[in-house]
Design brief:
Shape of chain B: elongated
Oligomer: heterodimer
Distance between the termini of chain A: 64 Å
Order of helices and strands of chain B: HEEEEEHEEEEE
Largest sheet of chain A: 12 strands, antiparallel, barrel
CATH class of chain B: Mainly Beta
Number of domains of chain A: 2
CATH superfamily of chain B: Lipid/polyisoprenoid-binding, YceI-like
Structural class of chain A: mainly beta
Radius of gyration of chain A: 26 Å
CATH class of the largest domain in chain A: Mainly Beta
Largest interface: A-B, 45 and 52 residues
Strand content of chain A: 35-45%
Helix content of chain A: 10-25%
Helix content of chain B: 10-25%
Distance between the termini of chain B: 37 Å
CATH topology of the largest domain in chain A: Porin
Number of helices of chain A: 4
Structural class of chain B: alpha+beta
Mean pLDDT of chain A: 88
CATH superfamily of the largest domain in chain A: monomeric porin ompg
Chain lengths: ~290, ~180
């Protein structure tokens, strides 16, 4: 009886030996819990359609961005359905750190110069921080305004915007909310407020590893009732190839700075005032990071 | 008979119970790939490993997202588009090292056989390397080639030609006795 017990024990020991190499991996997995990793690629670009995404440039990266909006599709065949008209913004973004990005740009719409800073306060992590939070602040100067009203000071042509960009990536779906404030130093008091609050929402669906769909909406919250402008709507198709991101866009906004698209979108979706456009971003790595 | 069994049991205890385990003190995995436009290189120091001296078993976990690239954009593409590291966070190896003569401590050629799992795909591999005992530490080194196709890692097309069909992986591990 005792002998049988001993034999059984011996056989058990030999069998544990046979599976030991897998056990060792299991033991290792148990002792080293999965490391928290930052969630990458909530959005592919630093813009969703017209507005900022939660993404910032990485340290030492310079991003050259060409944004283009044609005329409205309903302008007819004579204007080649809007393609005769061109509105452009040329912009440069630079990643000072992985969290802090500074950028400036110049838009043909209202001859606007804009400068901004973006700071990533929180980054979504696996098994950790559930959300990403990036703050964005812009100052813009509308050169056309100064020209139109010659007695005005440069102050009157300034506008400012502050945004809190909150986003979460759920596998291949990303969602962003953007409480925003746009302050214009000078507006027509009959139809507009100086300080406009808006809530933006944006989404991304990753279709393949290089292709994704985007949508964006900005609802103005406290604009005057007789305000002639509309809420900004946009959809986009993102194609990523190496260092480039191509975004093909349909939107009712003409501008690519906060004041123009959040507060002064002139196209009405119901009228069919929809513009085709694109954003092209090319990334250059200026400084390499050592190990 | 009983004496015989007791001896057998004792050897059994020696084989299994008395394991001399080593845990990673420091280690580095590096991979390198020569490509048309630019070479690709990444280093990972956030790995974990266990080694059982008694039977040669070795286990290794490499968090894929911890590979550091010169270019952060490349690092993002590596994780997002090719390794899908949110879905397959770790590369692992579970195998056995053979060919080391424990009566000596100098660097000796050894072979590790076992299962290598990358991108959720497991392959039986045989990896040549060296092992040495230095100041009580087990020092392992290995260099081998990983074919991307074997692990169902897509190769990029179009303009992005930066990743080759295979990558050269080098491993450098120092393990200390487990307390």
């Amino acid at each position: 009886m005792k002998n049988h017990l001993l034999i059984a024990l011996y056989v058990m020991m030999l069998s544990t030996l046979a599976v030991a190499q897998d056990d060792l991996l299991r033991e290792l997995q148990a002792s080293a819990p999965a490391a928290k990793q930052p969630v990458l690629g909530t959005f592919k670009g630093t813009r969703i359609v017209n507005g900022h995404s939660v993404e910032t440039s990485r340290q030492g990266e310079l991003e050259f961005m060409i944004s283009h909006r044609f005329g409205t599709l309903n302008s007819g065949g004579y204007f080649l359905w809007g393609l005769d008209e061109a509105n452009i913004r040329l912009g440069l973004d630079y990643g000072i750190t992985d969290r802090l990005t500074a950028g400036f740009g110049r838009s043909s719409a209202d001859k606007t110069y804009d400068g901004y800073a973006k700071y990533r306060l929180l980054r979504q992590h696996t098994d950790g921080t559930p959300l990403s939070l990036t703050m964005q602040g812009t100052a813009a100067y509308q050169a056309s305004y100064s020209r139109e009203f010659e007695q005005s000071s440069a102050q009157d042509a300034m506008s400012y915007a502050v945004q809190a960009l909150l986003a979460r990536k759920f596998k291949s779906f990303s969602l962003q909310l953007a409480p925003s404030m746009v302050h214009r130093n000078s507006v027509d008091q009959n139809i507009a407020v100086n300080t406009l609050f808006a809530l933006g929402a944006g989404a991304r669906v990753k279709v393949t590893r290089s292709f994704s769909l985007h949508a964006e909406y900005y609802a103005r919250l406290n604009e005057k009732e007789n305000n002639p402008y509309h809420n900004s709507v946009g959809i986009g198709f993102d194609l990523e190839t190496g260092g480039h991101v191509f975004q093909l866009i349909f939107t009712n906004s003409v501008g690519m700075t906060d004041r123009i698209f959040i507060a002064e979108t002139d196209g009405s979706i119901s009228n069919g005032d929809i513009r085709f456009g694109f954003n092209i971003a090319r990334t250059f790595q200026l400084s390499k990071q050592g190990y | 008979m009983r004496v015989l069994l007791t001896i057998a049991l004792l050897t059994g205890i020696l084989l299994t119970g008395h394991s001399q385990k080593y845990t990673l003190q420091e280690g580095m995995v590096q991979f390198y790939s020569q490509a048309v436009l630019e070479d690709i290189k990444a280093v990972n120091t956030r790995i974990t490993a266990l080694f059982n001296r008694a039977n040669g078993d070795v286990a290794l976990i490499i968090p894929v997202a911890s590979f550091q690239f010169d270019k952060k954009l490349m690092q993002e593409h590596f994780n997002e588009k090719y390794m899908e590291s949110d879905q397959y966070p770790n590369a692992t190896f579970a195998g056995t090292i053979s060919g080391f003569d424990w009566s000596r401590s100098d660097e000796q050629p050894v072979v590790a056989r076992g299962k290598l799992t990358i991108h959720g795909v497991t392959q039986e591999v045989t990896v040549p390397g060296t092992l040495a005992l230095t100041n009580g530490l087990v020092v392992m080194k290995a260099a081998f080639t990983v074919k991307l196709e074997d692990y169902r890692i897509k190769r990029p097309q179009l303009l992005w030609q930066n990743i080759a069909e295979q990558v050269e992986v080098t491993l450098d591990l120092r393990l200390k006795p487990q307390p």
